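Why show two proteins at once? Because comparison is the fastest way to build intuition. When a single record is shown, students tend to memorize it. When two are placed side by side, the eye starts asking what differs. So, the first record is below.
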Amino acid sequence: MPSTPLLIVHLDHALVAINKPAGMLSVPGRGADKADCAATRVQAAFSDALIVHRLDMATSGLLLMARGSDLQRALSRMFEAREVFKRYEARVAGLVESDAGEIDLPLIADWPQRPRQKVDRLHGKPSLTRYRVLHRDPATCTTRLELQPVTGRTHQLRVHLQAIGHPIVGDALYADADDSGRQMADLATPTRLQLHATTLQLRHPITGQPLTLSSAAPF
């Protein structure tokens, strides 16, 4: 995706926030073919920009970078202390019954099937996702959800939604091939993972003022 331009959502002397497109790595992967990523593209324009969190390659939306190592440490501490409020939007297979709820399932790496993660009630790390129904579409048998990952485990939203029987539309990694709900969802939008980071809320690391960044879901 070399020709895809990056949309800057916020820029000041402390922060750079972009709208990462689906299919782009947040940071470089292994091998020359995975060198192109959001971080290196931002650094080409702002050499002091450093990554503080990541989005899955398949996920689009808000990605925040810090201007310099001191601010990177400050923002990293804020993320670790859960002082950064994150919100996502997703379309999932099936009609979610409850208008709102929580998914509290511990997660661990599924080593034989890396990079997959899995629910493991004995050895998994505590993982909590809150959700709210935005819209149910009986015609496509899909539901649009607002998601808040309280914890930040790898693939947390994708695994949690798959675990409750509502895989995210377009998620070939976690949705079973024989899942009829997923098949119906794919008929509606087969081209990408329907997961987008829509909101980041935090205190500005220098001014201390509240900062809200927003990006509308493109699906």
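Second record. Ask yourself what differs from the first in the token line.
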Amino acid sequence: MTPVAWAVAAVAFGVGTLVGALLLRRKAKQEVVARTLVPHRTRQIVSALQPGAIVVRTDGRAAYSNHASASLGLARPDGALHEGVADIARRAWQRGETLEEDVEVKRGVLGNVSIVHVRVVPLDEELALAIANDNTEARAAEQTRREFAVNVSHELKTPIGAMSLLAENIEDAAEDTELVRQFAGKMRREARRLTKLIQEIIQISRLQGGESVLDHEELDVASVVHEAIEGARLAAETKNISLVTDLRERPEVLGDRDLLVMAVRNLIENAVAYSDPGSRVTISVGSRDEVVSIAVLDQGIGIDAKDQERIFERFYRADPARARDTGGTGLGLSIVKHVALQHGGTVSVWSQPAVGSTFTLTLPGFEEAAA
């Protein structure tokens, strides 16, 4: 190496050493300031808090924060602070009062958005305390409750309105026996639809409450399927649809018999409702790697790809007009999904328009559930 190169290297080394020393000194100074602003005992208390806790400085940085606040994406150990929290703190100081708001936080490489509720309390002219809780699930649950209430109101209006109109028609046609008979028959159908809707609303409310699976017992899946078929047989016979079974395997599961029968019956009735008269619905049972599957295959109208992800939502109907004709409430598949979840299982669908659909309910086998 030439003398010039040695000189350049020496200068670079010296500059690097100087910069490193300055950075270490700055960091040490920041730590001293932080310790001065936030005493050791206070830092211990903040660290022990379950929600996110941040001691905010007037320059919009964190004097101290606990691990929970870092997990929420609000503060880093180097003092960097989420802009939303810093903004709330500035306004809290300006007003001289406690201020609380929701802050959107993007976390992870996918940028998933969380809703974090932040409450900022000014402590003095230099510091404020921010307490943060993740409200994402609570917000989603509240939104779900609101949507459920709106949907229930809308769904109840239809049969009630129809029955009211039919009652008026009966009054107007009181002297026409044939018309009265026709209107009375329509009222019975609307009453059955209303009864079914109310029953399913009660069922799904209990399922979502997590209180429905009370009595687990060892169940022969084939017997569950047979009972479900008997419950759906009348609807199938009305449309001249054959219910075919493939029950060569007889696995067992641990679960609530009534709920599982209801789930399988809903799948069968759904297949019957969306199949053409004279066609066939096949119900099969299989077991592999301690996972039990119950598949219901139809030769019906099929489901568009855009609808397949949403058909398990409450009140969602891929074909509203046909659902009204069949008396569907839009809750049957949602009930199946919640029954599956409460048994540690899943429900999935394969479908192709004009070909048919296959709904598969999977459950842990008895040996796996017992373990």
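One difference worth noting in the second protein: The chain has twelve helices and twelve strands.
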